[in-house]
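Colleagues,

Please find the record for the two-part complex below.
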Amino acid sequence: MSGWIVSALTIALATLGGMFFLAGTLGLLRLPDFYSRAHAATKCDTVGAGSILLGLAIYVAPHPEALKIVVLLVLVLLSSPTAGHALARAAHGTGLAPWTAAQGERE
Amino acid sequence: MNAFFWGLATFLLINASACVWRAFAGPTAVDRILATNVIGTKALLVLVLLGLAFERSLLLDVALVYGLLNFGITIAATRFLETGRLTGGWQQ
């Protein structure tokens, strides 16, 4: 492929991932209780990291380093949702009550 | 393209330092573990970006090990919570 198409694709994918990361950080800081924070943080982290790593893999594509980045991408896509699910299961199993609208602003 | 990698790494570092506040002040232990996990994912991406900017493929291996350790730490802390050796702050 010609150079500028690859660069534009990389910049577009990485900017998209950066926006997802910004949304995840805002959710982690602003949402009212643990379950909603886990919802925002793990989902946005998975998509953001996946998008940025996909863009970087496209950028270095003919080089064998792209394979390493794809392995990292698969690792992030597998481990981040698993960790989020395990955390939410542990919190729910030990009795952390979810936030409800009736409680109002608890923070 | 190097300038873009540096800019993205700086942006991710600013995001991660905002997440440090949640890891410091999070009301429960699971909030802290979640914030640490998020910071770890961002640090992994910063390592990959620095590896591409410096053209050191060694940093990609470091990022791979970092991701595996990040996952292992989160799962281990979660097991501590489930077996009761770590109290979350909500159960008495």
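Chain A touches chain B through 46 residues (CB under 8 Å).

Comments are welcome before we finalize the supplementary table.
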